[in-house]
Amino acid sequence: MRWSRVRGWMAPVQDWLALNLKRGTIPAQPLTIFLAGLVGVLAGYASIFLSVMIHTIENWTLRPFMELAQTNPLGLVGLVVVPVIGLMIVSWYTRTYYPEAVGHGVPEVIKAIARKDGVIRPPVAIVKLLASGLCIGTGSSIGREGPVVQIGAAFGSSAGQIFQLSARNMKVLAAAGAAAGISATFHAPIAGVIFASEIILGNFAVESLSAIVIAAVLANVVQQNQGDHGLAPEFPHIEHNFDGAYHELPSYIVLGLICGLMAVGFTKLLYWFEDESEYWIPKHWVRAIACGLLLGVVGTSYYMLYDVAPKQSVAAQQDPERSHPIPVLYGTGYAAISHTLHLENAQKVTDTIEGEKDTHDENIRLSRADMWKHLLWLLPLVVVKPFLTSACLAGGGSGGIFAPSLFIGATTGAVIGLFLNLTVPEWCDHPGAYALVGMGAVVAGTTHGTLSAIVVVYELTDDYRIILPIMAAAGIAGLVARWVDPESIYEKKLSRRGESIARSHDLHHIENVAVREVMIRKFPTVKYTDNLMQIIKIARENPHIESLPVMNEDGSLHGIIRPEDLHRVLDTDISPYLVNAHDIAMVSPIAVSPDENLIEALRDFGTRDVDTLPVEITSSGKRVLIGLLVRADVMARYREELLRN
């Protein structure tokens, strides 16, 4: 059904709302807060619907072929073909009708807020929901958090459009929807708020936080009451602990360095794969088949080698869903992530609890032989997962990169943890601890949202006891990733299309630049009694000065003469000898201190809409003019600092 027909049905309702509840009828702030709550509820239910849809499609497509594969080779053929069909359908529909729904979604939300006043086409929410559910449900190796972020943002934008809110409030509602999406998907309301502020909006403005917080809270309440894991975190029963052991800290620092490089490698691989596939396979439907076949063949081949992990926990063995999971390289990969988080060195546990009976069925106690088996199982996943995620997105898939980043981090951390436990067990913690820390480190490296990565990993596991290694590794990974590639995985998608977004957090580059470093120290002045002919003479002698300071007899600043003030007088028939400087000067303009930073100066430029600001100091109780600050010089310094960083 075309959106134009639906829009026609909705027109009378929208007209009534616009007439009775439009902006101005109800104060904007309460209306925005109310709509944010409504958006949070809708995003919560959208997240639940997406999860149900994914599991339902898996049960209709992948699992029947898994059962058939146990007795008939045709089952393996079916496992190869299912991702191809899903990717073809999604690629065709999204590219034909709603290109915004292609890919991982978050860059489109960032662009809509930064460039389009928060406007997102309403059908995107429904299309993204159905496309992502079909894509992930048929095995595409992508995540569901990016779609829910875009769906929530589309709900928020649609609400703002219906009620004709201002651009500022529309942006807040879109960000609130994104926060609700993260909150509901990961059962992580705090991470949702930080993600929306740090990644989507690019600032932590106080006036936008209330709506974002309320949306995240209500989305999480919906998830707690209606979602599949209720009050439990996404990955429960994590028991890792860091008690300040100095001998373990170097291994976490090394992990942060490696994860930072892995994050950059994943980002570059994602877009390299996209470029190469478009170059060699220009037709999108052929590209979808090729990328789907790559996923199907590799994913099914690995499933033939390892239908389950080398060793499972007691709880997993008792759960049919977990004892017979879908192929590890298909879907979001949450089962594999959960598995790595519970890996323990059996010798360490024995030494620690001294023979006490263990009652926790989630733990996976590994002997030395088991650790070698897990190392051989996980090592290929670290390399292959980024390729298959890149293939799915290059083939026109609709899904997020957050879950693949978690997967890459967990498997990388587990591999390093297993290697350390096999070589220097006395200098490291359990392998699962490194998997947990690696999750946060890779997410920080790919998104450049270090704070978001730290909080989301904490809320995913509800495990605060190991927060210090997570913070250290995420901070180092983020630093390494920015040093190697200044653009995050979201920003790179926009910059490749020539749509680089200047975010408010970019202004920190000039926060430490003082006015005295940019101001003009040598400048002409005119007396307040000078006539127009004298002023014109001085202006011609100093063409690099846009505005001329006008001084009183005592040497204090009287005002400034702007170019437009001068032109206005020259266009009249008044004799230039009858017009004095004090007649045309802007009296008592805002002056800045040489100690202010350039961010404060930019604010002052906008206050009076001038291109030149006087720079004054106080000396012996008097204000003394010591320089001029030109807007063009400030912007030039900003560009210089931005390129330098």
Automatic annotation (TrEMBL):
GO terms for cellular component: chloride channel complex
Domain CBS span(s) in chain numbering: 519-576
InterPro entries xrefs: CBS_dom (IPR000644), CBS_dom_sf (IPR046342), Cl-channel_core (IPR014743), ClC (IPR001807), ClC-type_chloride_channel (IPR050368)
Protein name as annotated: CBS domain-containing protein
Membrane-protein topology: Multi-pass membrane protein
Ranges annotated as spanning the membrane: 31-54, 74-93, 172-194, 200-222, 252-273, 285-305, 375-396, 402-422, 434-458, 464-484
Signal peptide: none
Gene3D superfamilies, A to Z: CBS-domain (3.10.580.10), Clc chloride channel (1.10.3080.10)
Domain of life from the UniProt record: Bacteria
One of the record's GO molecular function terms: chloride channel activity
Annotated localization: Membrane
Keywords, alphabetical: CBS domain, Chloride, Chloride channel, Ion channel, Ion transport, Membrane, Transmembrane, Transmembrane helix, Transport
Coiled coil: none
